[in-house]
Design a protein that fits this description.
GO terms for molecular function: cyclic pyranopterin monophosphate synthase activity. By secondary structure, the chain is of the alpha+beta class. It has 4 helices and 4 strands.
Length: about 150
């Protein structure tokens, strides 16, 4: 059985950035989601905007947008992409906060890493801003939910 070909490794197994120069520029959309589980007390404080550090979801939105724009600085072999849009949606649920990100670009490669980065940093920001209230929060279920190439 042969091993799968990894696009980020050359024939010698050395890490490399994938060459996308021959690919056409296309409009690309990627959606990702994640979840941060919180205590019922934290959920109520989020709903009432009573977290001592301030407006958690607004700060998380800004942090996520900034992070998405710097994805190629964080992920070593990731291509730098011009983001046309990054949108975040937060849903406060009974057991935590659902986080969804949509990234749009016109580029030669996909934009899923930007959406994943946005969700991850949004969750980390929520954690940071709520940790004085809730030390048992759990971040998880971060995944790509949709990729579109037009």
């Amino acid at each position: 059985m042969s091993s799968p070909a990894f696009s980020h490794l050359d024939a010698d197994g050395t890490a490399r950035m994938v060459d996308v120069s021959a690919k056409p520029v296309q409009r690309r959309i990627a959606k990702a989601e994640g979840f941060i589980a919180c205590s019922t007390e934290t959920i109520q404080a989020l709903r009432d905007q009573k977290i001592p550090k301030g407006d958690v979801l607004t700060v998380a939105r800004i942090a996520a947008i900034q992070a998405a724009k710097k994805t190629d600085d964080l992920i070593p072999l990731c291509h730098g992409l011009p983001l046309d849009q990054i949108d975040l949606d937060f849903e406060i649920q009974e057991s935590g906060v659902a986080i969804r990100a949509t990234s749009i670009t016109s580029a030669k490669t996909g934009v899923e890493m930007e959406s994943l980065t946005a969700v991850s940093v949004a969750a980390l920001t929520i954690y940071d801003m709520c940790k004085a209230v809730d030390k048992a929060m759990v971040i998880g279920s971060i995944r790509v939910t949709e990729k579109i190439k037009e």
